Amino acid sequence: MLTKAIEKLQSEMTKNNNNSYIQVVGSFLLQHLNDNPTDAEKIINTDKTVAKSLEEMRKVAEKKKNGNCAVLTDQEGFEVVLKYFGIDAKPTVIVTKPAQNVTEKPKSVTAAADFDIKLEDLL
């Protein structure tokens, strides 16, 4: 059953090679299956696809819409995907911290400021 679920996901990812969203969600589900092989039977369901899980994410994001912007965090998005497939689990998502405020100027900026030339110098 695990093999069939992996093949199903890989097939959809291959057919939609130019859709980065299907690639990301498909990769997440493959990793989830690697960690939770018993969930394979839920992913095999022919009525459920990665593309349709993206539609579910869109619907959830639409409810949080602020103006013309609707965004979900990775955690929220992958929770929607798992729920869509009928998997009762919290997704394991590695969250990276945003860059801290940098008070030091990059060296390339200070080096460029030391270079001063006028058009008259070149004539």
Proportion in helices: 55-70%
Oligomeric state of the chains in view: single chain
Number of strands: 0
Low-pLDDT segments, ≥5 res: 95-99
Count of DSSP helices?
Answer: 7
Q: Give the radius of gyration.
A: 23 Å
User: Beta-strand level of the residues, as a percent range?
Assistant: under 5%
Average pLDDT taken over every residue: 84
**Distance separating the two termini:** 77 Å
- Biggest sheet record: none
Query: What is the overall shape?
Result: elongated
Order of helices and strands: HHHHHHH
Structural category: mainly alpha
List strands and helices in order, with pairings.
Blueprint: H1 2-15, H2 20-35, H3 40-44, H4 50-63, H5 74-84, H6 107-114, H7 119-122
Helix pairs in contact: 1-2, 4-5
